[in-house]
Structures are given as structure tokens and as C-alpha cells.
């Protein structure tokens, strides 16, 4: 694939962000995103009980730098300061997550009054500053008590999630502009239940498929629950989408790429948007036996009409046939991955982020076009609910952070988003992330933020990317 014009010319916007802002479509939402477990801290506050990530991060060797999220960015106590930063930045909306194990300790029963009070304060602070709240119900922090009974491998967890969604809708539904039910069910399934690199650390490979289905069922039941709670905001789901290419020209590589596309992308989007699971290539049918047992009523619930579909885009994936020769995955080491029938290959033609992920903005257009081609009239408006990059930011002697690589990343990707793709109504883009945070198994070793956080003092320092995005937003004319 040749590099698109928008990607080639991204550098021209480094010193002219307002000019790029002038290309922003009318009504386009610019936002920033975070998640509860990664920024809130106060893990022992307000009656909160452990989530699967509390348990996972306490296990030796799980987190690269040996850190934990007990304090992280202390957003629980510093939310007003962080909202002021958002107001200064000029964003339209803030995508955050409600901590399930904070709001509903143990995953059952009534919501914690003190936790409701915290999120009330946050939402009211956002609204007072002219920022529209987008709340994600589940961003990976499954209550540990539910994991003891099987977590997302068990159907009952979907019903517990629907109960939590209804109670959350009752508590905050009059003030939340948009709701995301589940964030990245693919990542939870693949990293958490198949490969063991995320919580809860299971290594089930294709036997992890019940976790995928039950998250989708939880989503469908949560949509019904939110509407039963008479929420006023729009409702959607979000998944991380990675366009897939075969590593070579062989039929085996093409089949391997199709398999990866199914397990990463299509078994999540197809049921939600089309009401059915994708057709599995004959050589791999035996790996998907669980999907042949799905009840039709489940698919009816899963495919409930949505107001938007959220898409997190970070990178494409290149796939070859045959098992991997090492245990490296994009998110950590997984010895069990050597048993997979495909392997992921590098993209030497692209620069990489701090995580080693390829920076390929033109594939954002591919991701959008794939959705238009696959889902046609069934595709609701799309929102890029996450997009961003980690880099080893360096604080200069004067205290500034010149993160030019992140500015270029945003310039290239926003140019693609603003240009649009036929057949897609793209409503917005949320930058990951507002703040440097606790980045799951990378601990504090990967920084995605527009705002630098000193994790010892909790001081916040806007980076060059913050000022650049501020000027871009200020330059829009529609």
C-alpha cells in the first residue's frame, strides 16, 4: 500500500495546527479519554473492593516496572484540576470510565453512595466547564468477586453487568451525553483470557471464546438496561480495530490473516451490527465450536440498535501462517502464544511508538472503509473513541516537554479523520490520553498523555502536544 497524501503531508501541520483545525468537519467532537483504573488511584477509598486488575498487578512479575495503580495520577482527589486542564485545552467531551468495582463493590447489589458522590462531582464539574461527559461502563476492571465464579467465561456475569448498567443509568443518566457499554472486548478476551498477558491471566487460547460472547451479551443487556433507566444520552460500544494484511502472497498467509481478522475484529463487530457471527474458514471451524451453540435470542439482544459505534485505532496487523517462534505479543510476553496457528510480523517500513507499535495513519482510513464495506446501511455513525501514542518523553531543563513525535502522530491521524471516508459518518475523535497514567502491564513505563505527570509529586505539566491540540481546536471554523 502506498502512503496516503494525508499521511505524507502530516508534517506540514506541525507549525500550523489552526490550519488543520479549519479542515475539521462541522459538528465534529474533539475529546480526550482515560479509564478509571489507570488514573483514579484511591484503590482503598469509598468502600471499593478489588477488581481483577488489583489481583493481577499484585502477582510477582506481571507488571514490567513492578509498580501498581494504588495512587496512579490521583485523579480521585485531583479531578477538578484535571477538568480545568480540559477546559484550557478546549475539548468538547471527556471520555472516562466508571469504576465497576468502585461503584458496585463485589459486582452485586446497590451502588456505593460515596462512589456515586464522587462521580456526581466529576460529572457536575465537567458540565460546569462546558465539557460533555462520555461514560464507559466497563474498561476492564471486572469485580474480583465475579471472577471467583468464572468472570466473563460465565453467562451470569453478563446479567450482573446489566444490573450495574441500569443502576448507573438511574444515577447519572440525566447528565451523561454518551454511554459506552464495553471497551475493547477483543483485548479483554485475547489478552486476558486467551494469552494471559492481562488480567485475569488465563491462557485458554480459543477456549476463551465464551468470554467474547458474554461480553457482547452483557453489552446487549446493558443497552436494554440503560434505555429502561431512561437515560438521555446516546449509547454505543467500542472495540479496538486493526486492519489485517497477509505477510506474503501464499494462500496459507491469506487464511491466517482472515483468521486473525475474525478473532480480533469480526467476532465483535459482526454480531453487534449484523446480528450474526462471521463465517469461519473450513480449516479453522474446529476452533470455534462454542459459537455454534449460541442461542438466537442472544444475538437479538447483542444487535440492539445503537446510536454510534466506537472504534479504537492504534495500528494495523501483518499476519503469516504458522506458529510464532517467540512469545512476543504487542502487549507482552505470552508463552502460550507459540501454540497459535498464525504469527504477527513487523512493519519495518513504518516508524514505531514507545510500545514498538507501527505508526501507520493511512490504515485508519482502511479501518473506516472496512466498516463501510462490511456493514453498509447497518453501520451507525462512528466515533474514534481512542487514538494516541506512547513515547519516552523527556522533561527539559526548563520543565517543558517537546513531544514532537506525538504531535506528528496526531497531525497525521487527525488529517485522515477530517478527510473522511465514503460511506462513513465520523462524529468525533478522542485522544488517548489526557494524562500520563498507569499503563496496565507496562506500569509507568509508557506515557501516552498530552499532560506529563510526575508520579512522585503528582504535578501536571502540559506537553507541546497539548498546546498544539489547543491551537488546532481554536482554529476550527465550523
TrEMBL record:
GO cellular component terms, semicolon-separated: cytosol
Enzyme type, top EC level: hydrolase
Record Gene3D superfamilies: Glycosidases
Catalytic activity: Hydrolysis of terminal, non-reducing beta-D-glucosyl residues with release of beta-D-glucose
Protein's organism: Conyzicola nivalis
Residues at which substrate binds: 38, 139, 183, 314, 432, 439-440
One BP annotation, GO: cellulose catabolic process
Keywords: Carbohydrate metabolism, Cellulose degradation, Glycosidase, Hydrolase, Polysaccharide degradation
Active-site residues (renumbered): 184 (proton donor), 386 (nucleophile)
NCBIfam families named in the record: BGL (TIGR03356)
PANTHER family: GLYCOSYL HYDROLASE, LP05116P
EC number: 3.2.1.21
Similarity section: Belongs to the glycosyl hydrolase 1 family.
InterPro entries: GH (IPR017853), GH_1_N_CS (IPR033132), Glyco_hydro_1 (IPR001360), Glyco_hydro_1_beta-glucosidase (IPR017736)
GO molecular function: beta-glucosidase activity
Protein's recorded name: Beta-glucosidase
Amino acid at each position: 500500500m502506498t502512503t496516503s497524501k494525508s499521511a505524507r503531508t502530516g508534517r506540514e501541520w506541525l507549525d500550523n495546527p489552526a490550519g488543520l483545525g479549519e479542515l475539521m468537519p462541522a459538528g465534529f467532537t474533539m475529546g480526550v479519554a482515560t479509564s478509571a483504573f489507570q488514573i483514579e488511584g484511591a484503590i482503598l477509598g469509598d468502600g471499593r473492593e478489588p477488581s481483577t486488575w488489583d489481583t493481577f498487578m499484585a502477582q510477582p512479575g506481571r507488571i514490567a516496572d513492578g509498580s501498581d495503580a494504588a495512587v496512579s495520577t490521583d485523579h480521585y482527589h485531583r479531578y477538578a484540576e484535571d477538568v480545568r486542564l480540559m477546559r484550557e485545552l478546549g475539548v468538547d467531551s471527556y471520555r472516562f470510565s466508571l469504576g465497576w468495582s468502585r461503584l458496585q463493590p463485589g459486582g452485586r447489589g446497590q451502588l456505593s453512595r460515596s462512589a456515586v458522590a464522587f462521580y456526581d462531582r466529576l460529572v457536575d464539574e465537567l458540565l460546569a466547564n462546558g465539557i460533555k461527559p462520555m461514560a464507559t461502563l466497563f474498561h476492564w476492571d471486572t469485580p474480583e468477586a465475579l471472577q471467583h465464579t468464572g468472570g466473563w467465561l460465565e453467562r451470569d456475569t453478563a446479567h450482573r453487568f446489566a444490573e450495574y448498567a441500569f443502576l448507573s443509568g438511574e444515577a447519572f443518566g440525566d447528565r451523561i451525553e454518551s454511554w459506552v457499554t464495553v471497551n475493547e472486548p477483543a483485548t479483554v478476551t485475547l489478552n486476558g483470557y486467551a494469552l494471559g498477558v492481562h488480567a485475569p491471566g488465563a491462557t485458554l487460547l480459543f477456549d476463551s471464546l465464551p468470554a467474547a460472547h458474554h461480553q457482547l451479551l452483557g453489552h446487549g443487556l446493558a443497552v436494554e438496561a440503560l434505555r429502561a433507566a431512561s437515560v438521555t444520552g446516546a449509547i454505543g460500544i467500542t472495540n479496538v480495530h486493526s486492519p489485517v494484511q497477509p505477510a506474503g502472497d501464499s494462500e496459507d498467509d491469506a487464511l491466517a490473516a482472515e483468521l486473525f481478522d475474525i478473532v480480533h475484529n469480526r467476532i465483535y463487530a459482526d454480531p453487534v451490527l449484523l446480528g450474526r457471527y462471521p463465517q469461519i474458514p473450513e480449516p479453522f471451524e474446529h476452533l470455534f465450536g462454542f459459537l455454534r451453540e449460541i442461542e438466537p435470542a442472544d444475538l437479538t439482544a447483542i444487535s440492539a440498535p445503537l446510536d454510534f459505534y466506537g472504534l479504537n485505532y492504534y495500528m494495523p496487523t501483518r499476519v503469516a501462517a504458522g506458529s510464532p517462534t517467540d512469545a512476543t505479543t504487542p502487549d507482552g510476553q505470552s508463552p502460550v502464544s507459540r501454540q497459535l496457528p498464525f504469527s504477527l510480523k513487523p512493519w519495518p517500513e513504518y516508524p514505531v511508538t514507545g510500545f514498538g507499535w507501527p505508526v501507520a495513519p493511512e490504515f485508519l482510513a482502511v479501518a473506516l472503509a472496512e466498516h463501510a464495506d462490511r456493514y453498509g446501511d447497518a453501520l451507525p455513525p462512528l466515533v474514534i473513541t481512542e487514538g494516541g501514542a506512547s513515547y519516552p518523553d523527556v522533561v527539559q531543563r526548563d520543565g517543558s516537554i517537546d513531544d514532537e513525535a506525538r504531535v506528528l502522530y496526531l497531525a497525521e491521524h487527525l488529517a485522515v479523520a477530517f478527510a473522511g471516508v465514503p460511506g462513513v459518518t465520523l462524529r468525533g475523535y478522542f485522544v488517548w490520553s489526557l494524562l500520563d497514567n498507569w499503563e496496565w502491564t507496562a506500569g509507568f513505563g509508557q506515557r501516552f498523555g498530552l499532560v506529563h505527570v510526575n508520579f512522585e509529586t503528582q504535578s501536571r505539566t502540559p506537553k507541546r502536544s497539548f498546546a498544539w491540540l489547543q491551537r488546532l481546536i481554536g482554529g476550527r471554523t465550523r
